[in-house]
Amino acid sequence: MRKFSIKLILFFVFIVLVSSSLSFLASTLFSQQVAGEIRQDQRDIAESVRELYAKTNLSLDEILCITSTSMYEVRAVEPGELELRQVDWDQLEHGEAVFLTTGRFIRTTTLIRVNGDYIRIGLQPQNTIFTVMASRMWDSLLFYVAIAVLLVVLMVNIVVKPIRRLSEATREIAKGNFDVQVDAVSNDEIGQLTENFNRMVRELKSIEYLRKDFISNVSHEFKTPIASIQGFARLLQSDGLSPEERAEYAEIIVEETGRLSRLSSNMMKLSKLETQEIVERGTPFALDEQIRKSIVLLEPEWETKGITFNIELVSVMYQGNEELLHQVWLNLLGNAIKFSEKGGTIDIRLWQQEKQVFIEIADQGIGMDAEVQSRIFEKFYQGEKAHFREGSGLGLALVKRIIEMHGGRIDVESVPGQGSTFTVRLPDV
């Protein structure tokens, strides 16, 4: 799409056409005006010749020499040199002046008859109407140049105005104001740039909101276990505690320190993966066995809730980063367990198709609406219901990044109240 370029070309053509039209009109009007002035000058010279001839004793040659100027030539001509119409000859015989124009206002000549002699009054050979115009048109030229400059300024202002608005909006964003929106007044490249700018501002605003929300969430996530650790540590200092109470308080402290450790670890992993583009692939490993081991590692969590599994895993040898993919299954399975109700069922499938490996993990938990699904893989984002459960909104962001580093993708389908299905696709390398 080159609409902006076309617009610039049209602006240029418009300026050229307007300037050319004004120039042509001015040239025509001015040439007519100059032709009229020349005719009047020649009429005055003709009257001077007649008056000098009638009132002085000067010879005709002397009169012609006196009345000739640097612009006008006054000389006697023979009748044979003249190509006139009969009506022109009749005018001369009656003492009237005859005005002749050759070309398009190029040369204007006046003929008179004085005592039987024919006198021709015309421009000097080196002069034409255009040389006369050139000496008189500087003011007009400056006027039309000013008009052309004004048109250019107006056209440039029309073109630059949306860019200036974008520049002003950019300065507002630099000040931290993400509520700026610029109206897109065209469908050309500038209009597209404006729409993309508005989209960028909305994304920045969303990121800024997520950042603040993340700081609030992480502060809460750190504050809660720290408060628990501090509280139970003080209780451990109390006298008269039974061994069972001491063991219980110590276990709570261990669990809370584990939460802090996992939170810090996830933040560090995400930061590292964001700057890493190439995944280090190790030796091939059994992907189905890795998923089974992940289920076993999470046994304390799913056993407590009485969750059962439907497992369909084909044997797949996969060459990827074993440690990172292990983190993926732990996160996805952990979420499925976390959001499943007691006595629920989790379906896990692994199959190969068209040089791709598919892993599907489906739960029958609380599910999520379309808005949450569209943002579930964003960093720091947690659905409203997730705020009431342990987590920091980093797990699925980690999962998505690891899958993408392996050249794959992850999708989610969910219905509120019916559960969620996460599908991972990995290239079969």
Structural summary, described in words:
The protein is of the alpha+beta class. The protein has helices spanning 3-55, 60-67, 86-93, 129-136, 138-174, 189-236, 243-274, 287-297, 299-304, 322-338, 370-375, 395-405; strands spanning 72-77, 98-102, 107-114, 117-123, 285-286, 308-313, 317-318, 345-353, 356-362, 409-415, 419-427. Strand 3 (107-114) and strand 4 (117-123) form a beta hairpin. The protein starts with a helix and ends with a strand. Mean pLDDT is 78; it is low at 384-392.
Task: Please give a quick description of this structure.
With 429 residues, the chain is α+β, with helices and mostly antiparallel strands.
Note the quaternary state here: single chain
Number of helices: 12
CATH fold naming of the largest domain: Heat Shock Protein 90
Order of helices and strands: HHEHEEEHHHHEHHEEHEEHHEE
Distance between the termini: 40 Å
- Give me the count of strands: 11
The pLDDT mean sits at 78
Determine Rg (CA atoms, Å).
Answer: 48 Å
- Segments where pLDDT lies below 50 for 5+ residues? 384-392
Tally of structural domains:
3
Indicate the proportion of strand residues. Answer: 15-25%
Form type: rod-shaped
Order of strands across the main sheet:
6-8-9-11-10
The main pleated sheet reads as: 5 strands, mixed
Q: What is the class of the largest domain in the CATH system? A: Alpha Beta
Secondary structure: helix percent? 55-70%
Find the structural class using helix and strand composition: alpha+beta
Instruction: Name the CATH superfamily assignment of the largest domain.
Output: Histidine kinase-like ATPase, C-terminal domain
The CATH architecture category of the largest domain equals 2-Layer Sandwich
